[in-house]
Amino acid sequence: MAAVAACGEWVVSTCDTKLIAVHTRQAREAFVFDCSTAEKKPKDTESDNKSDDGGADETGNDRILAVAVSPSGRLAALTDDSKRLVLFRCDCPWQCISTRWVVRRCTSLVFSQAEDRVLVADKSGDVYSFSVAEPQRAGELKLGHLSMLLALTLSPDDRYVISADRDEKIRVSHLESPYNIQAFCLAHREFVSSLLIPSAHREWLLSGSGDGTVILWHYESGRELQSWDIRELRGAPSSTEEGEQEKRSAVSRITSSPDGRHVAVQCERVPVVQILSLEQGSEDRLTPSHQLTLPHCPLDMTFDPRGRLWVLLDSGVTPFQVYTHAQDGWQCDAENAELSRVTEALKPYWETLQPLAAAESRFQHLYKVSFDNMESYMEKKRLRLEQQKGHWGKKRTTGANGNAAAATPTAAAPGKKRTKGKKAEPRPSS
Asked: In three state form, how does the secondary structure of the chain look?
């Protein structure tokens, strides 16, 4: 997974098995954490017998699956394909606090607002809570879905945990009593791939889906407020092969500026970022305001503390672009010294990763498989009727021959008369 996050004055990027943190303002040495050389899982842990497929010897490839940064930017966490959960303190220099182990591969991470715990969602549909204050303590199971979890977030007051799964459901649960479900947000037609609570509106929830739509909710009541089809906003074709590909363009990232006035929406393998903004004079509606056309497809994006949008691109030459907001719209800041520092630090890693970043969609296997089985059913029915027709026709032919043979008198043997029956003998006279 290729990702980018702003961690205070650090820009954090993940590529394959490595996490790289680059300081934007000072010429500090980049911090690099390589999961392939990290602490290995102990053989005697209880989770050895709880692998995804039930086998005890399953090993991962150390590829980073998810990364999260705490609200203050002082903490960061990652999880990888070998089921590590690694916690960092983002000081100068960075420090690895702990390495713990999850039961199954994770899909999403989120820190609590109080930064006392980190919640992880896994592919089996479970959510575990890991303590930050006790960095060696095992995770606690909080809740579960019946299908794979794809996105996870917490309300700003840490009251609710909001989870989204492959079956189009968004569930709002009480964090301290997750069996108590506050609401469901149900409107998407495909898996829900991204969740965000905008910083300026604590009662809002934005969700993105494999159906290409973004929906704005009042999550505490489960009420839908607004909806946008990102493909239609881009003016994408509604037919042809390109149009069919556009229909399979999942919303892969939603992020909000620090002041909450701008929301950026990214779709997988589409070189456009859609900007939604709060309407002038209205604080209760978002409206599509700008589209940023990119030179390459975006892999991830984030806003930094100063409101600049950093976009991670699928390019080994120019892995980043930075956009700043001005009165007349969004402008690409190509002459930024901080951008040059980050780009130079990341280039050696992205040049080797670039062929991997352009691989197949990470959401493609999540789409519903629809097929029309009526044609094969009708063909089987036709063959069955033809077989039955042939069987009954053969049976009728055999029966007719048999009846005709029975109705034809048999020829008498030579020298004998044919008799119809035995004649009764006369009674003797008394």
From this structure: CCEEEEECCEEEEEECCEEEEEECCCCCCCEEEEHHHCCCCCCCCHHHHCCCCCCCCCCCCCCEEEEEECCCCCEEEEEECCCEEEEEECCCCCEEEEEEECCCCEEEEEECCCCCEEEEEECCCEEEEEECCCCCCCCEEEEECCCCEEEEEECCCCCEEEEEECCCCEEEEECCCCCCEEEEECCCCCCEEEEECCCCCCCEEEEEECCCEEEEEECCCCEEEEEEEHHHHCCCCCCHHHHHHHHCCCEEEEEECCCCCEEEEEECCCCEEEEEEECCCCCCCEEEEEEEECCCCEEEEEECCCCCEEEEECCCCCCEEEEEEECCEEEECCCCHHHHHHHHHHHHHHHHHHHHHCCCCCCHHHCCCCCCCHHHHHHHHHHHHHHHHHHHHHHHHHHHHHHHHHHCCCCCCCCCCCCCCCCCCCCCCC
Structure confidence at residue 291 as a pLDDT band (50, 70, 90): very high
Distance CA 23, CA 92 (A): 9
Average pLDDT, the chain: 83
Cβ atoms within 10 Å of 371's Cβ, excluding its own: 7
Place of tokens 């929301």: 263
Q: Do residues 164 and 152 lie in contact, with contact meaning Cβ atoms separated by under 8 Å? A: yes
pLDDT digits (tens, 9 = 90+) for 234-279: 886 544 444 455 557 899 999 999 998 999 999 988 999 999 998 7
Residues facing residue 123 across a β-bridge: none
Tell me which residue has tokens 């009728």: 396
> What tens digit of pLDDT does each residue of 332-367 get?
988 888 898 888 888 888 766 554 555 457 788 888
**The pTM is what?**
0.81
Q: How far is CA 208 from CA 217, 254, 273, 314, in A?
A: 11, 7, 14, 21
Question: pLDDT for 380-423, tens place per residue?
Answer: 888 888 888 777 666 666 555 555 444 444 444 444 444 454 45
CB contact set of 212 (below 8 Å; sequence gap of 6+): 229, 230, 231, 246, 247, 249, 250, 251, 267
> Which pair of structure tokens corresponds to residue 52?
């995804």
Of 40, 34, 32, which is closest to residue 17 (Cα–Cα)?
34
* Residue 151 CA to its chain's centroid (Å): 7
